[in-house]
């Protein structure tokens, strides 16, 4: 997944560099790269966030128990 994202960043960066103005290049990079990849990484990271939250809760419960 990461290699595909890096390749997409490269492609969009080259697209942005060929735009006639700096503002157009920045908008191209933002709307074709940063925003879609941010959404994609947020959506695909849901299981990871849930697992980390569960591990933190388990660790907190374990630390809360009195020693036997």
UniProtKB/TrEMBL annotation:
Keyword annotations: Membrane, Transmembrane, Transmembrane helix
Organism phylogeny: Bacteria, Pseudomonadati, Pseudomonadota, Betaproteobacteria, Burkholderiales
Name of this chain's protein: Transmembrane protein
Organism (species): Pseudoduganella chitinolytica
Transmembrane segments: 28-45
């Amino acid at each position: 997944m990461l290699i595909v994202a890096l390749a997409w960043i490269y492609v969009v960066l080259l697209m942005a560099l060929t735009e006639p103005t700096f503002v157009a290049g920045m908008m191209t990079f933002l709307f074709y790269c940063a925003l879609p990849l941010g959404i994609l990484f947020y959506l695909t990271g849901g299981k990871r966030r849930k697992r980390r939250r569960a591990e933190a809760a388990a660790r907190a419960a374990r630390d809360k128990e009195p020693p036997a």
